[in-house]
Amino acid sequence: MGEPPLKVALLGCGVVGGAVARLLSTQADDLAARIGRPLELAGIAVRRLARHLDGHPDLPVDPGLFTTDAHGLVAREDVDLVVEVIGGIEPARSLILAAMENGASVVSANKALLAEDGATLYAAADKQGVDLYYEAAVAGAIPILRPMRESLAGDRVRTVLGIVNGTTNYILTRMDESGAGFHEALEEAQALGYAEADPTADVEGFDAAAKAAILAGLAFHTRVTAADVHREGITEVTAADVVSARAMNSVVKLLAICELSEDGQSVGVRVHPAMIPRSHPLASVREAFNAVFVECEAAGELMFYGRGAGGGPTASAVLGDLVAAARHRVGGGRGPGESSYADLPVRPMGETVTRYHVSLDVADRPGVLAAVAQVFAGHDVSIETVRQRLLDGGEAGDAELVVVTHAATDAALSATVADLRRLDAVRGVTSLMRVEGE
Question: Given Cys at both, which of 80, 143, 289, 350 links 411, Cβ 3.0 to 4.6 Å?
Fold first, then answer.
């Protein structure tokens, strides 16, 4: 082609960074044809140099490209594009801002940083006239962020409902299909490499909450941070919960839910386990796969599905962003910046309208059902169905009462459950889960 290459600085060479470097080498000719100029690695910043100096047998890059001086790498005048896949808040934020200050466009997979301080990154990109792309930050290879901020830019998004964490989806799938308990399913996920040795970020919902904040910000043109997201993990989900869901022809999933209010004046953003009908498209998303279900006013219902993690899938999303940013370097123009014009308030969880599935261990005697119903009525929570059965292996006179409510505010439902726990006839609230997707 005769044109000088665009220089790419790669920050991080773990599973994703290594896959990015590999694709840059093996797909070099195709990438050059798509962009109009070749891409060339200017350097790869790593934390520990010794592990990379001998080279990687399956990574076709010059060992001399590795450096521990990440700040020096992004400050080089010949660097056009920076790919950040190191994760975390710092030093990632400082490196990205330094790269933009130096005139480089940035591609990031850093969901935590974008969910905490995306506004700062957007402002820096706008000031310097460079691109900020981050498709890989949510749902791996699934193209969801670009459709949200470009393809659906002329529509109004009402709801985003997503399974955006592969670890928790694998665990819940195993619990549903094999009857395993949470800890047993977690150990299996760890043995297969689907869960980290410390799975806290996944099973406590932090990972999904960061992704929900990013999705809500794009969907509703409002700044949403991870701190705005109501978050519950799956550590309290039991095998009994999964059995109860099955009895309702439902399945338990960890959902990221982003909703525009009926009047369009506020948004709700939450992550928690919920029962959804097996007829819902998200119910069939198994194991470590991700999916995002979007409902728009004009387009109707849309579904995005695929692999949500892993080196290859995430690198695919990174390379897609890299091609877009590189094309702008060659032909001019910029990608879309931050759209936060709506500036809608985020509703407290207590104001969110939802439904509950409540299982109660109660005394099997006359008047118990009436007393329970009175508690629900006292908080204006309408009951949709009630199912009662005698408990196997329990004390004489024990029964299980399963109540599914109609929609009510989460605050009213929480207050109802608190009062149920105080009833003499209620020996315990054995299961409490929201019901979604109907």
Answer: 350
Q: Is 353 exposed, middle or buried (0-12, 13-18, 19+ CB in 10 A)?
A: middle
> Does residue 344 lie within any of the structural domains?
no
152 with 299, same domain? Answer: yes
Q: Please indicate, yes or no, whether residues 154 and 279 belong to a single structural domain of this protein.
A: yes
pTM for this structure?
Answer: 0.94
The per-residue pLDDT for range 91-100, each reduced to its tens digit, is: 999 999 999 9
Q: 345 lies in a domain?
A: no
Query: Is 60 exceeded by the pLDDT of residue 323?
Result: yes
- H or E segment at 98? helix 92-101
Residue 401 has phi, psi (to 5 degrees) of -115, 120
| DSSP-derived secondary structure letter, 90 | T
CA distance 262 to 159: 11
Which range of residues forms the domain containing residue 396?
A: 350-435
Do residues 295 and 197 share a domain?
yes
Backbone conformation region of residue 380, classed left if phi is above 0, alpha if psi is from -120 to 50, else beta: left
DSSP-assigned letter for residue 339? -
In a domain, 10, yes or no: yes
Sequence-distant (6+) residues with CB within 8 A of 413 are 354, 356, 379, 381, 405
Question: Which of 299, 331, 363 lies at the terminal end of a domain, its last residue?
Answer: 331
Is residue 211 part of the annotated active site? The answer reads yes
In this structure, the dihedral spanned by the alpha carbons of residues 326, 327, 330 and 335, taken in order and rounded to 10 degrees, is -90
Q: Is residue 336 part of a domain?
A: no
Name the catalytic one among 7, 111, 127, 211: 211
394: pLDDT strictly greater than 70: no
Helices marked H in 332-438 — which ranges? 368-378, 410-420
Domain count across the chain: 3
Of 297, 331, 365, which residue constitutes the final position of a domain?
331
Burial class from Cβ neighbours inside 10 Å (0-12, 13-18, 19+) for residue 187 reads: middle
Residues 6+ apart with CB under 8 A from 236: none
DSSP state of 344: P
**Rounded distance between C-alpha atoms, residue 182 and residue 196, angstroms:** 15
| 208 shares a domain with 134 | no
